[in-house]
Design brief:
31% of the residues lie in helices and 18% in strands. Helix 1 runs antiparallel to helix 2. With 87 residues, the protein is an alpha+beta fold. The mean pLDDT is 80.
Length: 87
């Protein structure tokens, strides 16, 4: 979990004053052969895609450049440090 300071910026044509975001990052692990089950009333936009596509899917330019890209850059080193799971 991170606390991120967000500077004032324009969003959808309106000014948003500076504020804090609480950022919780998850690294899900799943079997891609299993079907993805969506509940249209809750999570109709759920899908699997590569990390770089996840960055581009974000609608927040500030987060794309300052947060998500940096997380993706750090991810390989983080994963390398995790203990290996036995199959």
């Amino acid at each position: 979990m991170e606390i991120l300071a967000v500077n004032g910026h324009e969003k959808r044509g309106r000014y948003v004053p500076g504020h804090l975001h609480l950022n919780v990052t998850f690294l899900p692990e799943a079997d891609l052969a299993e079907p993805l089950r969506c509940r249209p009333d809750e999570n109709s936009q759920v899908c699997w895609f590569p990390l770089e596509e996840a960055v581009e899917a974000s609608r927040e330019a500030w987060f794309r450049e300052r947060v998500y890209r940096k997380l993706n850059e750090k991810l390989p080193a983080f994963l390398a440090g995790l203990p290996r799971r036995e199959s």
